[in-house]
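ok, trying the design again with the full structure, not the truncated one.
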């Protein structure tokens, strides 16, 4: 649909995919726009229409498949559509079956779309800080390999997420990453006393590169600072809003 904004990655050229924001939907109020979050307090009919519009905008005729996301490092292989009420508790999904639109939802966390064109295998991951440090992208890559992909051929794009300038964290958060790997300190910039600014996008890209991927694109879109284009949990929290929307990123064959 022409009014649904679709952001595409050069790295995924030739693969049906799109990072969507809040433009082009039917929801109203604080979640106005293309809210696809089943966990929000939005009108279920509006959410259903938004999910239909999102899938049609990226992969017409495909079945949208999403997860019950729990900030884990778990990945699932999808071979056929399933009902929304049967969504697996996981944060990455992969497939080699045409007609499935794999979707991950986010509202500041990093959506990651992956593809091995030659093998005909695609994947999508929801990488919040917990999933990112836990290895959700590694799990997605391993699940893709189980379907015949080769990590040397897998390309990836990290979509709109909260940027370092908008992502203030405390010393405990910083210490958690530093203890996991001292090199992680480079993803933090000094903030106010006892606080830091965390670069989630760069950290996720680093994890993809460390896993052996050669082509990784970062879109550099900050969800927090662009309220007209993207939903943001942190922005909604700072504004004292009662609810927040979720945007979807989709890939399929």
């Amino acid at each position: 649909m022409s009014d649904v904004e679709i952001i595409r990655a050069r790295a995924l050229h030739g693969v049906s995919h799109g990072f969507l924001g809040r433009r082009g939907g039917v929801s109203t109020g604080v979640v106005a726009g293309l809210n696809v979050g089943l966990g929000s307090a939005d009108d279920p009919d509006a959410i259903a229409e938004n999910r239909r519009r999102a899938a049609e905008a990226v992969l017409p005729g495909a079945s949208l498949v999403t997860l019950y996301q729990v900030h884990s490092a778990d990945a699932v292989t999808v071979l056929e559509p399933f009902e929304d009420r049967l969504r697996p508790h996981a944060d990455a999904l992969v497939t080699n079956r045409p007609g499935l639109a794999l979707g991950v939802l986010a509202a500041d966390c990093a959506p990651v779309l992956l593809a091995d064109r030659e093998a005909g295998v695609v994947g999508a991951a929801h990488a919040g800080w917990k999933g990112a440090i836990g290895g959700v992208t590694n799990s997605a890559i391993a699940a893709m390999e189980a379907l015949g992909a080769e990590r040397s051929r897998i390309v990836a794009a990290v979509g709109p997420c909260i940027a370092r300038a908008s992502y203030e964290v405390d010393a405990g958060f910083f210490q958690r990453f530093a203890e996991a790997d001292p090199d992680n300190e480079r993803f933090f910039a000094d903030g106010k006393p006892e606080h830091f600014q965390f670069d989630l996008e760069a950290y996720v890209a680093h994890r993809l590169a460390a896993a052996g991927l050669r082509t990784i694109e970062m879109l550099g879109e900050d969800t927090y600072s662009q309220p007209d284009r993207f939903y943001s949990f942190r922005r909604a929290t700072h504004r004292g809003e009662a609810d927040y929307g979720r945007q979807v990123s989709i890939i399929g064959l």
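Keeping the full-length input from now on. The radius of gyration is 17 Å.
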